[in-house]
Amino acid sequence: MAAQESHEEEVPTRERILREASRLFSRKGYHGTSTREIAEAVEIRQPSLFHHFPSKRDIMSELIDIDHGESSIVAERQAAGKGSAALRLYRYLVWDIAFICRCAYDLTSVELVVDDPIFADKMAKRDALVIARRSMIEQAIDSGEFVSVDADLAEKAIVWILRGDIADTAGQAVPDADVVADQLASFILRALLEDASQLGEIRAAGSITEV
Amino acid sequence: MAAQESHEEEVPTRERILREASRLFSRKGYHGTSTREIAEAVEIRQPSLFHHFPSKRDIMSELIDIDHGESSIVAERQAAGKGSAALRLYRYLVWDIAFICRCAYDLTSVELVVDDPIFADKMAKRDALVIARRSMIEQAIDSGEFVSVDADLAEKAIVWILRGDIADTAGQAVPDADVVADQLASFILRALLEDASQLGEIRAAGSITEV
DNA sequence: GAGGTACCCTATCGATTGATAGGGGTGATC
DNA sequence: GATCACCCCTATCAATCGATAGGGTACCTC
Predict the structure, then answer these.
(1) Closest CA to A194 of A141, A139, A136
(2) Under an 8 A CB cutoff, do A184 and B157 touch?
(3) How do residues A105-135 score in pLDDT, each as one tens digit?
């Protein structure tokens, strides 16, 4: 309380670089954004960036890790769980969407850039996430909770919605994150459930317990 | 039949540029793709590109027009139509998805790049498409066909799915375009319909008449 | 107060970018 | 056979890219 400013607005430069870079990457693309633009947004000179990150690629790399890290843990835990697979999918979806909405960074560019050959080393964790999601869908189809859709296509549709939500919220702190999360997760569940009237129970059960 | 090769494999250079550029743009991004890479893929030298297009930007610009042109016409016609709004939305969706699947170009990059400031002039037509889609959703909610969801959010979810499908098919001629179109349109309709049992009627009616 | 660390600066590097200048070959038309 | 349009070439441009070199200043530790 002595040396610290009471404003508490003090955001470390490294943190500001990640925020501004993520914002620019998603508006203009990774390759379309120069290190000079990032530096200007952070209000430092361009070479000063390289004091905090060894290269431009490492800035993007850290954003990818932030995006993939916790999501894959939650998805894999839910995929390996017991009980209603539809409920477990709902829980994962609500958690992931809320995470996206609350994130300080604009992670839009992440899903676009992992397909770029220069970030090929980041694809493994992304693939693990895909497998976990598809597993939950297949479990729900086998148990009769979901209609008999193409599990691959359904998983893709879910990713597309998540990816779109990332682009839409775009790093701005969404005040009603939980509302958006429930709305989108309900949209997805309604498209998949054999009996749409079960959605009420799932939403009630999903909002009680922790993931 | 005299001067023409019987192989009929003769694809004009300009056409090949559009195809290869669209493929590269979606894999590496617009800014991440150099004119030298495009030229190499087309098997000509880099300056020869500029005989067919005045600039790299004009190549992307033409791909954007291809993507937005017919889609907006079909969407606006269906939005202004009469009768079941759910059916009209289904017809538009099936047409658009099938169009995406059959397109010779990989239009993944289009939806990403229209947000880039340098393509700001292309945003008007994209906005018209958004309005037409949201209009159909609002009509279906008002008539009681759809559950009372947030029309903005539903429209976004649809775009995200369409965008994802574009990225997924990625310019390769999908053999079962009509099957994929019906599956994805059904996914969306099921998520929105108040009475899911109406989907059968809509699919039957949608496959008979032309758009 | 000497040494070390953290952070930012100016100046500049080599590589790559999109685009232009200008020449050459081919085929159709008159 | 002269002309012209079409298409592709080599050579090269200025601008911009990511990254490095090296110096200056504030602050902490001993």
Answers:
(1) A141
(2) yes
(3) 888 788 878 888 889 888 888 899 999 999 9
Residue B84 within any structural domain of the chain: yes
Residue B112 lies in a domain: yes
CA distance B17 to chain A (A): 21
Q: Environment class of residue A23 by beta-carbon count within 10 Å: exposed (0-12), middle (13-18) or buried (19+)?
A: buried
In a domain, A113, yes or no: yes
Q: In 10 A of CB B12, how many CB atoms?
A: 9
pLDDT band at B142 (very low <50, low <70, confident <90, very high): very high
Determine the structural domain holding residue B118 and report its residue range: 66-208
Cα dihedral B66, B70, B76, B79 in deg (nearest 10): -120
Instruction: Count CB neighbours of A108 within 10 A.
Output: 27
Interface contact flag, B191 A187, Cβ < 8 Å: yes
Residue B209: how many other CB atoms lie within 10 Å: 8
Q: What is the CATH number of the domain that holds B100?
A: 1.10.357
Smallest CA–C1' separation from A47: which nucleotide?
A: D19
The per-residue pLDDT of chain B, averaged, comes to: 85
Task: Tally helices (H) and strands (E) across chain B.
Answer: 10, 0
Q: Are B83 and B137 in contact (CB under 8 A)?
A: no
C-alpha A162/C-alpha A175 separation (Å) is 18
Confirm if B105 and B63 have CB atoms less than 8 A apart: yes
Q: Taking CB atoms and an 8 Å cut-off, how many pairs form between chains A and B? A: 94
Residue A25: inside a domain: no
Structural tokens at position A96: 């992931």
Does residue B37 contact residue A31 with C-beta atoms inside 8 Å?
no
Count of helix runs (H) and strand runs (E) in chain A: 10, 0
How does pLDDT run across A20-62, given as a tens digit for each residue?
A: 999 999 888 899 999 999 999 999 999 999 999 999 999 999 9
Q: So what's the pLDDT on residue B180?
A: 80
Q: pLDDT tens for residues B37-90?
A: 999 999 999 999 999 999 999 999 999 999 888 889 999 999 999 999 999 999
Number of domains in chain A: 1
